[in-house]
Amino acid sequence: MTKVVLATRNHHKVEELREILADVCSELGLDIVGLDEFPHAPDVVEDGVTFEQNAILKAASAADVTGLPALADDSGLAVDVLGGSPGIFSARWSGGGGDLANLELLLAQLGDVRDEHRSGAFVCAAALVLPDGRSTAELGHFPGTVAREARGTNGFGYDPIFVPSGQPAGSERTLAEYDADEKNDVSHRALAFRALVPHLKELLRP
């Protein structure tokens, strides 16, 4: 097995990625582990100006400190009428107030915006960095609209106010009303990491 480190200490994210990449992990003999196995790994200042830059920063740091191929992602909600904001600032949109404060602030900012202008997308960049410095990244876009109020208890962040596109009229659900398997099939994170698969096969094949 070839160990690949995911630049996170969140065990749930590691398990999620193992599920998303199950086929390629089996094919290439990859074992995805998290940074919890490397307690000396430093926190990374995400000072890039794009999702791709921040994902590569995190993966490069993990590859450097562990000597292993490293994966990372950076994601956020891009609202069209706000010019793509919150974007890379999604996690700190309210100035550090946390998920609920971020969500409430965004809803307030869109309070007077008509339904037809509430479109946006969850965006995720997935990056792979090798110990020799080679790197690549792919984007996943998950389009939808911003609801007028939060619904659902699954997920986190902006999931309770994000309504994915393509649902039957009259029965639209927010992403927080999807179960975990449904979300893993269609999410921006899944799309980005699946787009990264050809690079994994090219760069990590034994």
Which helices and strands occur, and which strands form pairs?
Elements: E1 2-6, H1 11-20, H2 22-28, E2 30-34, H3 51-66, E3 70-79, E4 85-86, H4 99-109, E5 119-129, E6 135-146, E7 162-164, H5 180-186, H6 188-204
Parallel strand pairs: 1-2, 1-3
Antiparallel strand pairs: 3-4, 3-5, 5-6, 6-7
Helix pairs in contact: 5-6
Describe this structure as you would to a colleague.
It is built from six helices and seven strands. It is α/β, with parallel strands linked by helices. The chain has a single domain (2-204), classed as Maf protein (Alpha-Beta Complex), CATH 3.90.950.10. Strands 1, 2, 3, 4, 5, 6 and 7 form a seven-stranded mixed sheet that branches. Helix 5 (180-186) packs across helix 6 (188-204). The chain is globular, with a radius of gyration of 17 Å. The protein starts with a strand and ends with a helix.
- In total, how many domains does the architecture comprise? 1
Helix content: 25-40%
Please give the CATH class: Alpha Beta
Oligomer: single chain
Helix-strand topology string: EHHEHEEHEEEHH
Task: Specify the CATH architecture.
Answer: Alpha-Beta Complex
Mean pLDDT over the residues: 94
What is the straight-line distance between the termini? 10 Å
Number of strands: 7
Computed CA radius of gyration, to the nearest angstrom: 17 Å
